[in-house]
């Protein structure tokens, strides 16, 4: 694709005014388990009588590790490994990420390495494969699969994060059930549960999970939950018999602690960086409002969204670009369809992998969004800029919000600077940082 600065598009956008912006701080409740405390919490949870009894000397124990950017995931995983060793059992790690990593064993191992989960750092083997065992059929008639290596172990510990899903609503969203069904199900399991579309996944997920709990050597789950600042705030070990009852309760807790963009509405949202380490769809639509399906709602209400870059650890998997109004050439050039499209073929959700308008620079992406606004005073456009969808404690807002913020209209939102024009380099890319110096 020939995208160049200085062409017809650049000429059409060059006079679009980008309003002054100011730094703002969002303040949320902040329960936290510090990294130093995590190993002790993991040991305490796994030492609970009902859970501790599941791990016996000599057992080969599979521990799951997923593809999401979970806070302290390496520390949590290492804590589980060390606990298993303390029980004189033999731990190993299995990637549990469905079709992510290009749906290859090596691609999934590569993703874990990006999170500092390696054989050296964990002190145990990582056994990655895409082979599965078919366990049977759910009550809804869907085939149920499980990672072959994990199935052949003496026991599986399901380690994961528990939070709202980005494309559907139900009693079970992102958590232990999804990790078992989709993560450990690999390509086959993920495709099975998604095959009826996102409108049915809320039913298929628990139905498939029940078969896995019945026929696979699941011992327990140990989900972690995060506060509004993407910090570990809760870790809980759950015996296999209690997973189906406890997960919906923890999901309500997670929803109550979900962060948000406090202003609620905007004309333009600028996302500096997307990535699989932030959300399955590059940005978490529960924050940005950019949902890929009609089966979930929430987040900020916006007319236009631009996405400027993608994280290196996404390895070119730019799911989420299709939810933007515009992206930069820098982001576009980093996309790898071989990493993106397997997710879509598995989930049957195609929208998030689409390619929106591509422009040459950060400045032009923002200007395009402003120029194409409808029924808005564009010189006073309401603009929000975030670094990504996980870290929204510090953001930038356009001058249109300034008086309301200073007069306390938005509880939990404070201005940290006066409005100023953002600076761009000679190439038209942002210099001004969101983080207030």
Instruction: Provide the β-strand percentage band.
Output: 15-25%
Q: Tell me the number of strands.
A: 16
Q: Could you estimate the helical fraction of the residues in percent?
A: 25-40%
Largest sheet, order of strands side by side?
Answer: 13-12-11-10-14-15-1-16
> What Rg is obtained from the alpha carbons, in whole angstroms?
22 Å
Low-confidence stretches: none
> How far apart lie the N and C ends?
38 Å
Major pleated sheet: 8 strands, mixed
Average residue-wise pLDDT: 92
Give the overall form.
Answer: globular
SS-based structural class? Answer: alpha/beta
The number of helical elements comes to 16
In short:
The protein is α/β, with parallel strands linked by helices and 437 residues long. It has helices spanning 8-13, 38-46, 49-52, 73-86, 105-114, 119-122, 148-151, 176-183, 186-194, 201-215, 243-256, 285-288, 329-333, 337-347, 362-371, 402-406; strands at residues 21-26, 60-65, 90-95, 132-137, 143-147, 155-161, 218-226, 232-235, 238-239, 268-271, 304-307, 326-328, 357-359, 383-386, 394-398, 413-415.
Topology:
Elements: H1 8-13, E1 21-26, H2 38-46, H3 49-52, E2 60-65, H4 73-86, E3 90-95, H5 105-114, H6 119-122, E4 132-137, E5 143-147, H7 148-151, E6 155-161, H8 176-183, H9 186-194, H10 201-215, E7 218-226, E8 232-235, E9 238-239, H11 243-256, E10 268-271, H12 285-288, E11 304-307, E12 326-328, H13 329-333, H14 337-347, E13 357-359, H15 362-371, E14 383-386, E15 394-398, H16 402-406, E16 413-415
Parallel strand pairs: 2-3, 2-6, 6-7, 10-11, 10-14, 11-12, 12-13
Antiparallel strand pairs: 1-15, 1-16, 4-5, 7-8, 7-9, 14-15
Helix pairs in contact: 2-4, 8-10
